[in-house]
Structure formats: structure tokens, C-alpha cells
Amino acid sequence: MLTIPTVTLNDGKAFPELGLGTYGLRGDAGISSIVAAVESGYRLLDTAVNYENEREVGEAVRRSGLDRGELLVTTKIPGRHHGYDDAIQSTSGSLEVMGLDYVDLSLIHWPNPSVDKYVDTWRAMIDLRGSGQVRSIGVSNFTEAMLTRLIDETGVAPAVNQVELHPYFPQGALRAFHAEHGIRTESWSPLARRTELLQEQVLQEIAEIQGITPTQVVLRWHVELGSTPIPKSADPERQRENADVFGFELTADEVEAISGLERGRLWDGHPDTHEEM
Ligand SMILES: NC(=O)c1ccc[n+]([C@@H]2O[C@H](COP(=O)([O-])OP(=O)(O)OC[C@H]3O[C@@H](n4cnc5c(N)ncnc54)[C@H](OP(=O)(O)O)[C@@H]3O)[C@@H](O)[C@H]2O)c1
After folding, report:
1. Distance between Cα 127 and ligand 1 center (Å)
2. Is 272 helix (H, G, I), strand (E, B) or coil?
């Protein structure tokens, strides 16, 4: 079984350097895929109310046979549950659907600035952490300006900001801001959803030199940047391939060459304008 190392978040909690994305893993097949990932060493499972698979993730936690404390479950509060009371209810609902007593990490899924309720939502999350229903609190798809506002208005910096991040969009400025404020970066769609990324010549060349796959080159690049990637795979073999990135390193030149693929967001999801309910 693979061992995935952890880092310490700004709240003192241990957090894996790589986790499993679960978008699209549903039903019995989804549960089996998630259990297979845990069996190969994954400890961080990323779900959301809007993935409609919190039940499957909770069931996989139970079927894995591991102690609850060995696994970390992330879920996310959707846009339609923004606001203090709704965020509290959203979390109770998630716990009920998952059949769990607490969630390890809760994130505000999208900031939805036109609704202007993310600060109230954040206040609820601070209280949810206080009551123990949530162990760590963070955000997703927040810009530097939005993070600054949360910190200024509540005095509490998120432990994590989960954002679109892959070699086509390395998020250099945002990562520098995170480093300054002790916020852990987490990469969503770390493989750019298997677009043409994996065929890029620079990745093929590094893979050949290192004796690994282009996918492993990309996932190790996230680790070298200090971001936790959460690749999704339904397939146990690909899950193992994706998690097996802690036995080698990339050189600084290789990291720079991969970051040179930058071309911007792939799905037009700028958090100032893209909103999800
Ligand atoms: N916070 C947010 O707003 C947000 C937005 C998007 C995603 N997310 C989270 O991030 C997770 C990951 O993102 P994602 O699912 O969009 O994309 P991704 O992880 O970049 O890519 C997943 C795709 O790559 C394929 N794949 C995985 N490993 C592979 C390998 N070793 N070789 C070849 N193909 C491989 C998968 O197919 P198979 O399953 O067939 O292997 C799937 O089609 C999501 O599941 C979700 O948890 C969060």
C-alpha cells in the first residue's frame, strides 16, 4: 500500500499531499471505486453537496474498514446554501446524508460575489468548527481580494483554498498569496480533465527521462509546487498510478518547463463572474 505524506494546515491539522476527486463517482460502482482508492493508500476524499455523491462517500468510509480518524472527508457548501443559517443547515444535511459525525474539511464551493453572502457563510463555518461538526474550514475558487476580505472581516484565514490548477493554469500569483497567509493550495482538475495535456511533448520527455508516466509527472509537479492535487479516477490501476508520486522528485528546471505550458483557465470559471448555485 502507498503512503501519502501529509503537511500541517494553519489550524494544526494534518492534511494529505494528494487526495481523491470523486466528481462523477456515484452508485455502487462509485462506492467500489472509492473503497479501492482507500485500499491503495488514499486518505483524503473530496466530495460536495453538488456532486450528489455524499452518500456514496460516507458508505465508502464505512466499507473501507479503517477507523474514521484515518480518513479525511471534504465536502462543500453550495451557492444556494450561502448565509449563516443556511450554511449551518447545509452542514447538518451533509452529515446526515454521509452518515458521519463530523466532516474533516468544509469549503465554500464558489464565492458567488453577486449574492454577497460568503462572509456570513464563513462566520457560520467558524462556529461549525467551534462545535466540532467540522474539523477544518476553507474555501474554493476564492481570489486574493476575496480571501483578504474574509481575513479582514473575521480575523480567520481559511486553512485551504481549492482552485483550478494544472500546468495550463499554474496560479502563480494566488499561490504566492497563499504562502504569505499560511493557506494550503489544493488543485482541482489537476490533470486538466485529461484534455490534450497528457500528450504535451515536455511531459512525455520528462516522463521518459524519469521512467514514469506523463500523469505522474503532472501530479508530482503539483506536489513540488506545494499544492495538494485531487485527481479523480474511477479505475483502481489509474488511482494507484496517480498516487505513486512520492518516490521521486522533479528538478527545478523540469518544474519550470512544465509551468511554461501556462495558457490560462480552461473553463472560463473566473470567480468574479462565474457563479454556481
Ligand atoms: N471546487 C471546485 O469547484 C471543483 C471543480 C472541479 C473539480 N473539483 C474536484 O476536483 C476533482 C478532480 O477534478 P476533475 O475530476 O475535474 O479532473 P481531473 O482529476 O483533472 O481528471 C479526471 C479525468 O482524468 C482521467 N484520469 C485520471 N487518472 C488518469 C490516468 N492516470 N491516466 C489517464 N487518465 C486519467 C479520469 O478518467 P477515469 O476516471 O476513467 O480514470 C477522468 O476522465 C473532482 O473530482 C472534484 O472532486 C472541484
Report:
1. 32
2. coil
Is residue 51 annotated as a catalytic residue, yes or no?
yes
d(CA 184, CA 166): 16
Name the residue with the closest Cα to ligand 1, atom 41: 233
CATH architecture under which domain 6-259 falls: Alpha-Beta Barrel (3.20)
**Which value, to the nearest 10 degrees, does the dihedral of the CA atoms of residues 81, 266, 20, 129 take?**
-30
pTM, 2 dp:
0.98
Nearest-atom index, ligand 1, CA of 24: 45
Question: Which ligand 1 atom is nearest residue 76's CA?
Answer: 1
Q: Indicate which residue's Cα is closest to atom 33 of ligand 1.
A: 194
Q: Write out pLDDT tens, residues 216-262.
A: 999 999 999 999 999 999 999 999 999 999 999 999 999 999 999 99
Q: Which of 51, 84, 102, 168 is catalytic?
A: 51
Q: What is the dihedral of CA 190, 50, 30, 220, to 10 degrees?
A: 10
Contact in structure between 137 and 162 (CB atoms under 8 Å): no
